[in-house]
Amino acid sequence: MTVADALLLALGLIAVGSGALVVTSSHLVRAGFYLVVSLGAIAGLYLVMGAELVAWVQVLVYVGAVVVLLLFAVMLTRAPIGPSDDLDRPKAPAVIIGAGVGFGLTALLADAFRWTEFELPPPGNAERVGEQVFGAWVLPFEVLSILLLAALIGAIVLSRPDLGARVDPSAPEPAPPPDPVDESAEVVARLERIAARQAAAQARVRQARADQEAAEAAANAPAPEPEPEDPRRRAAHNLIFEAHDARPKIGEPGQAEVIDSRIIPGESVVESEEPIERPARQQPAIEGNVVEGELVEDKPAAARPDKSGIEGHADRLALPASDDEKEQ
Amino acid sequence: MHAVIPYVIASLLFALGVYGVLRRRNAILVLMAVELMLNAVNLILVAADATVRSVLAGVRPEAWAYPVPEPRSGAIFALFIIVLAAAEVGVGLAIVLQYYRLHRAVNLDEVVLDEHDHEKQVTS
């Protein structure tokens, strides 16, 4: 009996004992935690037998991932705190078959190996396992990765009910899960009370706001009357009086006359007449003879009536003078 | 190291797994028992890797039997089985959750295997 034997026996006892608790415990969650203990003890067995990488992968994948997944499934389906009484079937056939399997395997292996002593292999490291996996076993390794991908996709497809679901026209509408609000009369009564209180408070606030608005409207009633009329009236006023100011006046020279008087035959007047924002490219064409001629012809034609009016005026003024001369 | 110790432990664990699969009604507990069985098989593989090789140490192997100079196939098989078990648990739990979503229960006794859900609803 060596140290390795003692370790194997102790770890094996832990593994088998917690394994027995896994399959007999009436607590769903506790079974998961006993499974953690059992898998950890098996990882210790791997370590004793020199399979280091397998032991750490066991801890990583089984204890870290698989058991957590199982506990998640327990929580998602049903998470009873206390013991559940509907976990088990009748005991007799399971005990018979399990004991038969255990006894048969134990007898077979014990008879095969007797109490023979083997020397422990040197502790394996990850380098040797890596050489093997990527050397002789590379094809199973790749197939396994494809299988993992397929399992991943399959799990996703299975957990989504909208993927590949067959519609059953004859099936009745599935009953919705029970709503906790509907079940409890106390909750309903409390919700109704809260709703009534909120409605009363809202009505009060609305009433107060309406009163305040009415008071403000009464206070501001005369003030806003001239305001909306003012801009239009001012605009109309401005329009009328500007037109009045801008109309041609008899005594003063018209705008055309002012421009006419300023005409100096040449280009400068035409430039002053032209708008500044015109592109500079067009200016020479306008400065040409045609534009100049038009301007020179146009302005006297437009100014002539005024001049004739003034001349007529002068004629009329002259007539009394002649009359005066005649009288004289 | 007495090789019979890990072998007996593994066979006891396998028997416990068989007992759990037959006894349990809850699908998640059945999956746990299946994990126990898979671990028993892993333990046998690792133990065989540790013992059989030491027996065959002086034997000149055939070339086709050992494609690599130093076999360590038991541990690699154990690794592969761990990966397979992870994939199995993923798909199995997806099935269990989907079944729970449809029927609000995970009792394996009530699973109807020989007729479709639609037919069950029509006939019952």
UniProtKB/TrEMBL annotation, chain A:
Q: How does it sit in the membrane?
A: Multi-pass membrane protein
Basic and acidic residues: compositionally biased ranges: 296-316
Cell membrane is among the record's keywords: yes
Catalyzed chemical reaction(s):
a quinone + NADH + 5 H(+)(in) = a quinol + NAD(+) + 4 H(+)(out)
Kindly list the residue ranges recorded as spanning the membrane. Answer: 6-24, 31-49, 55-74, 94-113, 133-158
Q: Which domain of life is it from?
A: Bacteria
Which UniProt keyword terms apply here?
Cell membrane, Membrane, NAD, Quinone, Transmembrane, Transmembrane helix
Q: Pfam families in the record, alphabetically?
A: Oxidored_q3 (PF00499)
Q: What is its main location?
A: membrane
If you read the UniProt record, what top EC class would you report for this enzyme, in one word? translocase
Q: Tell me the compartments it is located in.
A: Cell membrane
> Where are the stretches annotated Disordered?
206-232, 267-328
Q: EC number(s) in its UniProt entry?
A: 7.1.1.-
UniProt entry tagged with the keyword Nucleus: no
**Family (UniProt):** Belongs to the complex I subunit 6 family.
Described purpose of this protein according to its UniProt entry: NDH-1 shuttles electrons from NADH, via FMN and iron-sulfur (Fe-S) centers, to quinones in the respiratory chain. Couples the redox reaction to proton translocation (for every two electrons transferred, four hydrogen ions are translocated across the cytoplasmic membrane), and thus conserves the redox energy in a proton gradient.
The protein's name in its UniProt record: NADH-quinone oxidoreductase subunit J
What is the protein's species of origin?
A: Paractinoplanes durhamensis
From TrEMBL, chain B:
- UniProt keyword annotations, A-Z: Cell membrane, Membrane, NAD, Quinone, Translocase, Transmembrane, Transmembrane helix, Transport
Organism annotation:
Paractinoplanes durhamensis
Q: Gene3D superfamilies per the record? A: 1.10.287.3510
Q: Where does this protein chiefly localize? A: membrane
State which Enzyme Commission number(s) the record gives: 7.1.1.-
**Which gene is the coding source of this polypeptide chain?**
nuoK1
Q: Which HAMAP family match?
A: NDH1_NuoK
Family, according to the entry, reads as follows: Belongs to the complex I subunit 4L family.
Record field: transmembrane: 6-22, 29-48, 75-97
- Per the record, the domain of life is Bacteria
| Job description of the protein | NDH-1 shuttles electrons from NADH, via FMN and iron-sulfur (Fe-S) centers, to quinones in the respiratory chain. The immediate electron acceptor for the enzyme in this species is believed to be a menaquinone. Couples the redox reaction to proton translocation (for every two electrons transferred, four hydrogen ions are translocated across the cytoplasmic membrane), and thus conserves the redox energy in a proton gradient.
What protein name applies here? NADH-quinone oxidoreductase subunit K
Q: Where is it localised?
A: Cell membrane; Membrane
Question: How does this chain sit within the bilayer?
Answer: Multi-pass membrane protein
Q: Which InterPro entries match?
A: NADH_UbQ_OxRdtase_chain4L/K, NUOK/Mnh_C1-like
Q: Which reaction does it catalyse?
A: a quinone + NADH + 5 H(+)(in) = a quinol + NAD(+) + 4 H(+)(out)
Pfam families under this entry? Oxidored_q2
Tell me, how does this one assemble? NDH-1 is composed of 14 different subunits. Subunits NuoA, H, J, K, L, M, N constitute the membrane sector of the complex.
